[in-house]
Design brief:
The structure is a homodimer.
Chain A: H1 12-24, H2 41-56, E1 60-63, E2 69-73, H3 78-81, E3 85-89, H4 103-118, E4 127-131, H5 145-150, H6 156-160, H7 170-176, E5 192-198, H8 203-207, E6 211-217, E7 219-228, E8 232-233, H9 245-260, E9 269-271, E10 275-278, E11 284-285, E12 288-297, H10 300-321, E13 324-333, E14 336-337, H11 340-352, E15 357-362, H12 367-371, E16 377-382, H13 398-418
Parallel strand pairs in A: 3-4, 3-5, 5-16, 6-15
Antiparallel strand pairs in A: 1-2, 2-4, 6-14, 6-16, 7-12, 7-13, 8-11, 9-12, 10-12
Chain lengths: ~425, ~425
């Protein structure tokens, strides 16, 4: 394997400036964050800014049928153009978001392209920077939709016909903001895909590692659980005659931690983020409880075991409490194992820079998990202060951001030099 | 003890007609129920109707400073007037209520007065029918306010200065609807107080008993529990680093049933009716959970023990999960033991009519618990179909309503004959 020397220079200042500028689009001065939900006017403004920056670098800007944007730095040869190296992430955000989630990976990709342009060097293979549509899934479900479609996991028409929480049709909104492209998703078939991202978790900070080598990505199982009981007066209904949907929900949520997670405490994660009771009155036994279950594990069999343990408990509670329990699967992704070769290159690049790194599992979903279906893929993580993301307090030190981008640039040169 | 024969006749038809007519005031055709929240225009209409019916019976209508309405059927002698027998309840309702809660006790009281009028007999002691202000506590806290003030448990001015959930001042609304009376609460000091009410619970129906002899009333402890944790990403935060306010809440609610109620399963009741998570998003560990705890027991020491068990567990969870837990007491009423003498008379009256009865505890709060502070008091319950109340489906068969009123009339005659 040829190890390329890091002979291209990263324009760190420009990368940080672009992160800051993109972060002003959709900014909410009252809350301190920014909101660029997919295919809104604010997100269109972000897309316009990004596409402009791509053109400044003389990249060919291509937009596919679901609005994924690609900036292509063509190779010296047609042969090199046929085996593009793709980097990417997304620029849509959740509500009141930080400035880094997604944007960092896209703009660091641009920084790699910029390094080639500034050195007036054409890469041996094409370099493509992608910004995928609707990674966050705030307005349209599922999340990671653009990369899912790109990797062939969802039909274009299905994506376009998706109706959002505001009643809009995705395809209409895409056309409205001028990003209904013509390229068929999957047209640019990457030779490999590399995504740089903030960790969005506390592990790198806790372990004092500037670089995370992401070797796999957790499987995710999202369910909505609805329990129907019987509303009754809190003071007059003996416990033995109760069918308390709220208690049943609490018992399930406690069981998730106390029994389901406890069965594989180092890998299985369980979270109930949303819970509603009806009628939600202090002295009325809840007739209905609705809650979500987010289960994750990097091992598919362990994830299935966790799902089964929950299902068994739900059945037992329904029987014991005389309530009916209905579960609705919302999202189910199998764990993803990233490409060992690219992971090794990331680790080696960090080592060459004298940076300590650690192998890790991505707990969050990323476009890379979709791209891994069609190309060898891996991810590079940098620390998130306090593990906080999806929040205006999301923060990574500038120095850490630069180190991550530097490692990305090194890995790209390494990959391009090796083939 | 002289046992009076039941020589007065109950006008059952008129009682049922009045229940139905009062039930039309504030009716909501869409939802099937009626809404007469204290001191609204709808409740004023109910008051006007009731006061008119009192005047039809030639009762002296008196209104006190917090708007409690009393219809007085004077005795044959001043001596008899000095020892009035009071019956009563309330005519305000929750939102979308049934027609019976409260109204039944007031209108059955009127039926007792009517029996005397129709027989052209003056009672040995005055008979007073009371309708207390704001029993439900929907708009102004606390509930049972009118009887609480009447019994000296709250200053008149404090009640009048109460600000409602709609920002209104109780005293202003009372004046606006024309029920800011001049009588000082407590002026008519009852010799005994008897309240007829629907059970609002499932016990009489389940036990096939037409009459409940209410010998005590549960103590009530309402708390609001607020748990502050740390919001974090559901996929990237290892379990050991979590401070999950939602899980902590679920553990507490499960503990309430599994440990606190289990310590006294026949008497202690625990209910969490309301629970909210923040930010309430499927893949975010809740930073905040707020829930209510409704604890009840007819024994004060057991109620205190239940409160202590909960407090101990909250402290343990806070320590174990690294969350902070704050509890706010909302309502605290000690258990009430009703008058054994009146309870015995109710039981005897039922027996004379060939009706089976059972001694029971009231799980709901009632004006009788306030009146018990100033006079020997007791309650008579009739069955509630399915235990349902505070709901348009609240129902008691006409026959059962008539039997309850008949027992009330018998008990009144018994009490008046005995003194």
């Amino acid at each position: 394997m040829t190890v390329a020397t890091a002979n291209l220079a990263l324009d760190a200042e420009r990368l940080l400036a672009q992160l800051q500028e993109l972060g002003t689009i959709g900014q909410d001065s009252a809350q301190g964050g920014r909101t660029r939900i997919a295919l809104t006017d604010e997100e269109k403004a972000g897309r316009d800014l990004l596409a402009g920056w791509m053109r400044e670098l003389d990249l060919e800007v291509r937009v596919d049928q679901v609005g994924n944007i690609f900036g292509v730095l063509h190779a010296a040869s047609a042969e090199g153009d046929a085996k593009p190296l793709m980097m990417g992430s997304h620029i849509d955000t959740v509500r009141n978001a930080g400035a880094l989630d997604g944007c960092y990976g896209v703009l660091a990709g641009l920084a790699v392209a910029r390094a080639y342009r500034q050195a007036r060097t054409l890469p041996a293979r094409a370099i493509v920077v992608g910004a995928f549509t609707n990674e966050e899934g705030v307005r349209y479900q599922p999340d990671m939709m653009g990369s899912l479609v790109y990797a062939g996991g969802m039909a274009v028409q299905t994506a376009l016909d998706t109706v959002g929480i505001d009643g809009t049709r995705l395809g209409d909104e895409l056309a409205r903001i001028g990003y209904a492209g013509t390229m068929v998703p999957g047209t640019i078939m990457p030779h490999e895909y590399i995504e740089l991202h903030i960790e969005q978790g506390p592990v790198l900070e806790a372990e004092h590692k500037p670089i995370g080598v992401v070797e796999n990505l957790q499987g995710i199982s999202w369910q909505k659980v609805t329990i129907h009981g019987v509303a009754n007066h809190a003071g007059t209904t003996p416990t033995r005659l109760r069918h308390d949907a709220g208690y049943a929900a609490a018992a399930c949520i406690a069981h998730l931690r106390d029994r389901v997670v406890a069965a594989a405490p180092d890998t299985t994660l369980a979270t109930t983020g949303s819970l509603r009771l009806e009628p939600d009155v202090i002295n009325v036994i809840p007739r209905k409880a609705t809650f979500t279950v987010d289960l994750r594990d990097p091992d598919e069999l362990r994830l299935q075991a966790a799902e089964q343990r929950l299902a068994d408990f739900l059945a037992a509670v329904a029987d014991r409490e005389g309530v009916t329990i209905h579960t609705e699967p919302l999202v189910r992704f199998q764990p993803v194992v990233f490409d060992a070769g690219i992971a090794g290159r990331i680790e080696a690049a960090a080592r060459r820079r004298g940076l300590s790194s650690m192998r890790m599992t991505s707990g969050a979903g990323h476009d890379a998990q979709m791209m891994a279906r069609i190309a060898p893929s891996a991810m590079i993580f940098v620390p998130s202060r306090g593990g906080i993301s999806h929040n205006p307090r999301e923060h990574t030190d500038d120095e850490q951001l630069i180190l991550g981008a530097q490692v990305l640039l090194d890995v790209v040169q390494d990959c391009l030099g090796a083939h």
